[in-house]
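Cast an eye over this sequence plus tokens and walk me through the fold:

***
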Amino acid sequence: MTATHLKQFTDLIAQRTGLCVPERDWPKLTQAIRSRLGTLNLREPEQYYQQLIAQSDVAGGLWRDLASDLTVGESYFFRDKGQMALLRDHLLPDLIVSKDSSRCLRIWSAGCSAGGATHAGHAAGRVAATGGGLEHLHFRH
């Protein structure tokens, strides 16, 4: 696969999905394209490229499968013990102290897709809130 092909694909992917595929990830992109060619029984990357262009729905099968090949389906946000300790022992207690009069803290987590990371963050928040005398903790994702 040529650099020209890869550049065309990366431009289209960025335009349609917002995903940026830097040159250092072109081997992964090449592997994903080759895999899709086999799955779709296509011979040339240009054929696959034309099918992607023709599919306007980025949530549709072709785009969904390609995005799945290029992204990581798991995050470690709120799963790292160091991050949890920092949140529980330092950041949240400081926020709680700053909320003396209202006794209410609202936290929004935009870093999870399935809810597991939010649950872990909420648990750390409950521990910090209990120690800080907070009456209400609202945690949303």
Observations:
- The mean pLDDT is 78.
